[in-house]
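User: quick one, fold this
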Amino acid sequence: MQFIGIDVAEGSSVCVSVKGGHQVGSISFKHNRGGFNQLKHFISQTADKPVLVFESTGTYSDSLARFCRAENYIFYELNAFEAKIKMRQSRPNKTDAHDAFHLALLAETQYTSLHTRRVLGEPFFSLRQLSRQYHQFFESRRRTINNLHAVLETTFRELNDVLDSFTRPVNLAIIRLYPHPDLLFGLSKSQIISQVSNQVSRQTRPSGIRKRCVDVLRAAELSYPAVSSSSVMIEIIRRYCDQIESLNSEIKLLVKELIKTAGQSNQFSILCSIPGVGQLSAALLMGELGDINQFKTYKQLNAYAGIDTRHYQSGKTEKADIITRHGRPRARLVMYQIIVGMLLNQQRTPSHITDYYYKMKRQPFNKKHMVAVTACMNQLTRTICNLVHTNQKYDYRKASH
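Assistant:
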């Protein structure tokens, strides 16, 4: 076998072939049809039984991995963090060619210890893409809402206090109609309620519309904005409202697609059987973690999500254990939201995980909130792995307390 290291970058890569610890050839190629033909020719000319090694760099390395599978090459797509540790040197140099050479050298000297990235099958691959899209839309909406809050400080700052959530259609309708208190002058309470009601669905409760309109009308009497009602800021506010409504629609459709796709796997119904794990949370968790069966133990799942603990002791110095945070941050976020949901709905849906939370809060443990929540996340991964591996649904009576 001859080992070929590839340093992957955006749109192009550097390839180095190694034999007996020495470089025997190198090329630079682009990630297009011509570039991969060039790489194929280089491999055929310089390598007998080639083994390609490169780091997993997200979307940049996906096309290279597809090329390797199409050409039936043996390849290892290494975890970037693991590769960095194994290639650590006392006097490091940083160039693309240098990194590619040491990747090939790593494969030649430690071939038996290499682990490649697992390929996601369906429906987990589709869930991964949908999950990423969901988080992108959610983050875009959050930024737009923050911008809307900032602009309202200039035109009608009291709306930031009166309206609780800027994702609700009623609140968006009020902001779009009355982004400035002067626009409310001369209007009666019934007129305002009628105008807002015409902008929202008939399923919206009239009592909720009435309460918000009364609160906004009272706030307008006290407000003293920094700009007039003819300011360009008024149009900017209405555009922000349109963007938020559009993102609400996109997220709603995406949630349906996530749940529908996740339902193709038996793991979805198992996850949903756990108290506090809704359909959306289960779909997002499956998108971030992939096939749970790939993790032999819950400790592997903890490491993948980045909630495994790190212990530090040197001489007389000993620090408190903390999680590594080396895994997938969005998976940790979903798990955290699941635990919070369990705590909020503990009376309706009891679980051994919430019992464990309050055990951690009592003496002699007396843990802080985030420490107890992290411990519950560990309990959650243990529960998920056990249920999926044994193909059974959650039963509070069988759970260990």
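User: anything notable?
Assistant: Residues 270 and 392 are 7 Å apart (CA to CA).
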